[in-house]
Inverse folding.
């Protein structure tokens, strides 16, 4: 048994903002992927994954919803036969490891599933996103459903608001100097504590005002620039966003990277932003000159995502 591949995702813009109904832009990241496999002799991470699938099975068995039903008999039998999720997607890194797993389980066991070959109307996309949010809540406590949606469709997704999402056409990559890259913090980040921290901060009126007037507005402008291919304007807005995140989301940035973050803003060699919920994992970088950014960040591991 070997299932289809499901890819990692990168939320280019919109982290935390999408919880509060501002825009988001997510793209598939094909460097990492996962698939359902089976083995009679499980050990190590495969055994761990199999046990995790048993817990997920119990969660889906107790899930009360009219939106979706699953062939749980087959799911249980496959788990007992040694099924596991074989994945290269790093966990706790903000690139959708649980999202790819959720997409794989939906694809294999959902009854009357919405397929990627259908005409994906707004209602179908919202239905999928809601179902995926319910499923992925097993891993994070609360989920927007965006990661599994991105992995399932393997398309860039534009979130306009909670009730409006659409596949997005992003400009094709160029062989220019500019780039989007991942910086490895070499620390695991946990989504749930970071989201809880954010929700607590949202109780503060000043923080709420900053989110709606500064953070969301700047993030939305970045999305607009990226989709339109306005590279010059994009970097100005990404720099502004990087400053806002440093000033207001410090607990979500690993302490060892506060100075690295400031250095990018002051030298203009690169600009950093959160990749997912933060707290560790990957940090997302934008640069007008990737070679210069590599030189500035030579002691860190960088991965190229997109070229301008």
């Amino acid at each position: 048994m070997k299932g289809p591949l499901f890819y990692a995702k990168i939320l280019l813009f919109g982290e935390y903002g999408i919880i509060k109904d501002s825009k988001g832009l997510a793209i598939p990241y094909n460097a990492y992927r996962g698939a359902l496999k089976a083995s009679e002799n499980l050990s190590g991470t495969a055994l761990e994954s199999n046990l995790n699938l048993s817990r997920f099975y119990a969660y889906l068995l107790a899930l009360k919803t009219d939106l979706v039903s699953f062939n749980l008999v087959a799911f249980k039998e496959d788990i007992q036969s040694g099924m596991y999720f074989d994945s290269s997607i790093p966990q706790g890194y903000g690139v959708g490891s649980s999202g790819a797993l959720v997409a794989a389980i939906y694809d294999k066991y959902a009854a009357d599933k919405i397929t990627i070959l259908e005409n994906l109307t707004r209602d179908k996309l919202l239905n999928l996103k809601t179902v995926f949010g319910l499923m992925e809540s097993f891993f994070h406590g609360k989920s927007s459903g965006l990661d599994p949606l991105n992995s399932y469709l393997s398309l860039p997704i534009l979130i306009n608001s909670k009730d409006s999402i659409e596949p997005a056409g992003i400009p094709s990559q160029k062989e220019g100097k500019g780039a989007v890259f991942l910086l490895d913090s070499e620390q695991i980040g946990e989504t749930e504590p970071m989201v809880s921290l954010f929700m607590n901060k949202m109780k503060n009126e000043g923080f709420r005002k900053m989110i709606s007037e500064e953070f969301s507005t700047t993030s939305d402008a970045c999305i607009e620039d990226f989709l339109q291919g306005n590279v010059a304007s994009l970097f100005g807005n990404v720099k502004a966003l990087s400053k806002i995140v440093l000033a207001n989301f410090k607990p979500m940035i690993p302490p060892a990277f506060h100075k690295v973050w400031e250095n990018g803003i002051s030298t203009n060699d690169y600009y950093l932003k959160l990749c997912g919920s933060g707290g560790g994992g990957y940090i997302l970088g934008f640069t007008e000159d990737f070679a210069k950014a590599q030189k500035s960040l030579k002691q860190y591991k960088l991965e190229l995502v997109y070229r301008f």
User: Anything to note?
Assistant: The first strand starts at residue 6 and ends at 13. Strands lie at 6-13, 24-38, 83-87, 157-161, 164-167, 179-184, 271-274, 282-287, 302-307.
